[in-house]
Amino acid sequence: xxxxxxxxxxxxxxxxxxxxxxxxxxxxxxxxxxxxxxxxxxxxxxxxxxxxxxxxxxxxxxxxxxxxxxxxxxxxxxxxxxxxxxxxxxxxxxxxxxxxxxxxxxxxxxxxxxxxxxxxxxxxxxxxxxxxxxxxxxxxxxxxxxxxxxxxxxxxxxxxxxxxxxxxxxxxxxxxxxxxxxxxxxxxxxxxxxxxxxxxxxxxxxxxxxxxxxxxxxxxxxxxxxxxxxxxxxxxxxxxxxxxxxxxxxxxxxxxxxxxxxxxxxxxxxxxxxxxxxxxxxxxxxxxxxxxxxxxxxxxxxxxxxxxxxxxxxxxxxxxxxxxxxxxxxxxxxxxxxxxxxxxxxxxxxxxxxxxxxxxxxxxxxxxxxxxxxxxxxxxxxxxxxxxxxxxxxxxxxxxxxxxxxxxxxxxxxxxxxxxxxxxxxxxxxxxxxxxxxxxxxxxxxxxxxxxxxxxxxxxxxxxxxxxxxxxxxxxxxxxxxxxxxxxxxxxxxxxxxxxxxxxxxxxxxxxxxxxxxxxxxxxxxxxxxxxxxxxxxxxxxxxxxxx
Length: 548
Prior knowledge:
Strand content: 5-15%
Structural class: alpha/beta
Number of strands: 15
Helix content: 40-55%
Low-confidence stretches: 1-7
Shape: globular
Number of helices: 22
Largest sheet: 5 strands, parallel
Distance between the termini: 19 Å
Mean pLDDT: 90
Strand order of the largest sheet: 6-3-2-12-13
Radius of gyration: 28 Å
């Protein structure tokens, strides 16, 4: 059951993605799926595709009991909510299927879209279970083996004036060189939490939010572990199973894939490359351009180092490695290996009975290169469902948009030209007509003068043009002064514009891609996830305006 929410969320408003944003590939995936059908496992808009995905996942042999044991141990160690643990136990049933999503272990939960991915997946799992009568759970894959420290080490919050501030945890040994799952927080996290407490606007939930984060982000705690703890508390009550993908205990379940890659070096990369070339030929883009010597595996013995193959020889970094030794290691010590972006999804869907993956735009694109990779590794490819996308606004911002009929995206530019245009349109018709008449009269009279003067003295042509420019400038300046006067009269409106602009596009970027979960936890408290779950539609093809 979901926690009670004392305030009902307002009905969301949808913006067609074609008027919002998106690559040609992501828009065609939603609106012209037939054009991309050859690259994916099916159209998630059709019931037939879901039935087929369910049948594939249920029929594929998996070591479910071993995977359940791994999940149960992780959840117990993190003291995850019982709803998540019960969901993990359901995976032992050979009929149970899964909706999966995932993300890097961002500081303080990462941007809002991280939570939106988890909630999209949870809503979808409930819908599939109800519609098709099949046990369905949600798994959030914590990408703890990624080593892009810069991507996860910072978080953005808005202060009381809605100005964005970047918080960065630093001074951590191994950051950027080893997987995030091996990076442990130092005392610097105490400084960052103190900065966060100062920056957050004071609400009735501030103390609770900071205390919650301090329980997760503790000196000595692993960065990925802290992220997992936070997601457990936010998403666990929905039955979402958070899985740390770096767990060595799960690697034996992927050993056969690692061995196949090493037995056919370069083939996985070649299949993905050919699919990327086909996408480009069809007018789209290839998200992943793999190096010609890539094998799709990393060695985890010392950090996370790419395994390469060229001229009949394997290399770990720049060091040559005996092929037999490497292959024996993959069989006996699979924990020493990690899949790259071309293989991670296949490993995921070998471990889990995935019927659908909830993807962001970049994931959607690279997964379009993997259909033949899935087939080569004898793993059913799931359906790909774009995550829900939205902007959380307050009632003041929504009223401003309704009053002005301005489009949300028009606020993204970090200036007031959109407001100026709207104000100009609000000028009394007689005043606007007078300004237009003045500009037209200047142009007309100068044109007459320009036609007559050359007959008197050709050298005055330049003077006429110069005078025209000055007069035109003066008329435009007068127009600007009128607009400025109107803005002064509409000072409240200008403040409302700035409020909506800063909230929707902090620093000029979409809110969901910038503002971290800590800010929303501070704003909405325990009701954040229940309200978002209640009002975030799973219907594709729209960007949603949400008031929680």
